[in-house]
Amino acid sequence: MNKGTLFMLNPRIFLASCAAAALLVSACSKSKAADADAPQTLATDAALPAKTADAAPTTTAELATMDSESGAEPIAVSLEAPTRSEDAVVETPKGPMKVMVVMDSSGSMWGQIDGKSKRDIAREAVRTMVASNPDIGSAGLIAYGHRRKGDCKDIELLRSPGATTPLPDVVDKLVPMGKTPLTAAVETAANAMKIEETRATVILVTDGIETCDADPCAAGASLEARGLDFTAHVIGFGLSADEGRQVACLAEQTGGKYIEASNAGELADALSTVAEAVESGPPEAATATATITGPETVEIGSLFEVSWDGPGADEDYIDLVPPGYTKTHGELSYGYTEDGNPVSMRAPGTPGDYELRYVWNAPQGRTVIANTSIKVVEAAVAIVAQPSIGIGQNLSVKWRGPNNDGDYVDLVPEGYTKTSGEKSYAYTKDGETLKLRAPGTPGAYELRYVAKASDGRKVLKTVPLEVMDARIELAFNPSVTLGKSLVVDWTGPGTDGDYVDIVPRGYKQTSGEKSYAYVSDGNPVELKLPGEPGDYDVRYVLQSADGRTVLKAVPLTLSDIPFGVKPAKASAVVGETFAVEWTGPANDGDYVDIVPRGYKLTSGEKSYTYVKADNPLNIRAPGEPGAYDVRYIFTSSTGRAIKAVAPLTLTAAKATLDAPASVDKGTSFDVAWTGPAYDGDYVDLVPEGYKNTSGELSYGYTTGGPTLTLKAPDKAGAYSLRYVLQAQGGRSVVVTRPISVK
Length: 742
Fold this sequence. Notes:
This protein is mainly beta. α5 (216-226) packs parallel to α6 (241-252). Keywords: Signal. InterPro entries: VWF_A, vWFA_dom_sf.
């Protein structure tokens, strides 16, 4: 691995995810915004502060190939360096260190808390943190997900530690956009700081979990083993307890803190706490005791209870793990002490010896303070599944039983006694692991093994299942203009048939939407915007065993934009190609057309040209003189709409033909002509009175010059010479001259 060369010494890193990304970066955007919301570039001379007479010369530092174990693309940059080396460090009891903020700028930072986007909350929190802890203002900044949507390699160093551009100013320039490759970003920063040679700390503030198929727990263990003195702190902004467990291990593996923040005040407090921890160093390890009491044996898949006595701190839990297991993540089953005493737990599906543990959420991180053994034994009839699941999600169920023809496992409301009318079911013949879809209504349910025998169906086993409300979030720019599309970062069940749609504000039905995209298309999804400005809702619609249910609706304001068409001339000749200036979004499918004056349809046009990069564009006039309109046609999710109209008058083309009055049959003769000479115009020879513009006896294109040579037919008679104009929509005869063939 090439760690690159970096001017940093004793660095510390702040890692902020999309939540704090905004904090530190507000960088989770989907599309470029104007001015204040445009991403700030610090990697060029243009981005550096202007020199003054009193300022020391600004230098740059090369950073080559900042890579990671998780697939981030190498980074090579040249950035503004600090004027003085001491400006780039934070003094701590163990000596100086540098700080790097690594920001998750994923699209979910557009999500709102108390009516305010996480991006804006994070921006303010970063300013508060730096104001309260000025030394932290020396931190550098790495952002990810701020330039491209759907790209796990979008990781960029934006500010060197100690650079003169204030950290909050750089954060303010970031706009939420992409994914959350938080593991690769931490590894990239660690490699850039050469953690084998110097002390380093990462502070991760994230509003989401890893979305790029990497393991933050494994990365934390690897970095701890490699680093001279490496620490990672993690702030989970708006994460659920279960989501927080998936990233807290990054802090615990390296001796750092994991702090949850659910609103603006808690986020500011969390950043302040972490900043103080950076400056003061790790606290003394706290101690506590606990006892746990559970059954000696339980059947596979069964629900059992564990009594406990202990600290009962927020997010303390009892878990079940293999014997000798030392990690505080990856457990087989767990239950939070805050849910009550005793705690309900579900046995695993494999018989054997296991341990029950009390895990304390201590100041220094999750710590095991009590354990006891438990044995899991086989059962003749068993159902093995997780004890709870979100609405609409697919549930994996393992079973033991007779496996008769017609036996099945079903999902029913708690206390349901009938063997029909179930919410979901699967036959045991389908395999040892079955898939059942949870209903769309939260509540208490049961999984049952139903056997089919000669005397009917019989329920052999029942286990409880809690169907929980899912955490639903829709994150996007809430105020946009008419244009191409809206990028929506979503959190939800993600089951087959779920979709995100756009509907008029307050719309309740689950059909007739203005635009939609299935969540199976990926995250984020991209929706084409409606064609009319106004107030809309963006909704997450669940497809479950109960049908479709709207789980969340978030307001969207769609503003109008100017449209216009301006032909280069108010009057043109039929068939002429002329320029038209246009104003509009240039959506895929937008076009400028020419139609008869007052025409209202968006099909059947006489001529059209798609609006693309060229402005003005060129369009060819129809072949019939008269009054016309030039129009801008806007294409959106709701169809085509006429957005701008300008009048156009088309006049008849003029042409002349000069040739002998008569020629001998079979001979060649010259014809002199004048006319528009458009591409495709020609002079032809046809029988007198002939009306078609094909099947001519002889012809020559006007591109051949002002005099053409035609050949007389072999049959004597009355004929006509014609100037044929090639216009948009077909050919037309401009002038005719008689000629006799002898």
